[in-house]
Amino acid sequence: MDTFSHGFWLYLLFNKCLHKDIIPFIFGSVVPDLGLFTAAAYLFLTGKKQPGAGWLEAIYSNPAWRLTDEVMHSLFIWAAILILGIVIKNTALKFFGLAAAIHILIDILTHTKFTLTYLFPLPVHRISGWVNYLDPWFLGVNFSLVSIVILYYLAKHHNNPAS
């Protein structure tokens, strides 16, 4: 799934129950993709890649960036952060790690082209999901639903500013 949608849907699903802890949760829901954003910014700022198609191909063709994405998408790393948050009773750290783990579980289902192992550093095969989040039909459904939800909340807030 794309980074924006990770943050949007996890916010929508967990905002009511996490209310005061939603900020570390939302940050955790997008942080596994931080390496990709860093690589994209580098390519753009150095003029090595212009906006348009081929960004992910350029990023994944670089072994260092691919390794960074493997590390950032490792269930072991985020499970360790989640467990550490539980052990030291740090709610923000716990929800940060939980959201990152949920991000990865969603990616396992929705990545068929740019696949990862999700179990770094174990030398296991890459896992391919059952649907490609880059397929036009998936993007269309996803962003249509995002738009509907945003319009619903805007209309609700417009009709009842106190909500």
Automatic annotation (TrEMBL):
Highest taxon above the source species: Bacteria
Keywords on record: Membrane, Transmembrane, Transmembrane helix
Stretches that traverse the bilayer: 22-45, 71-88, 95-116, 136-155
Protein name, per record: Metal-dependent hydrolase
Source organism of the structure: Metallumcola ferriviriculae
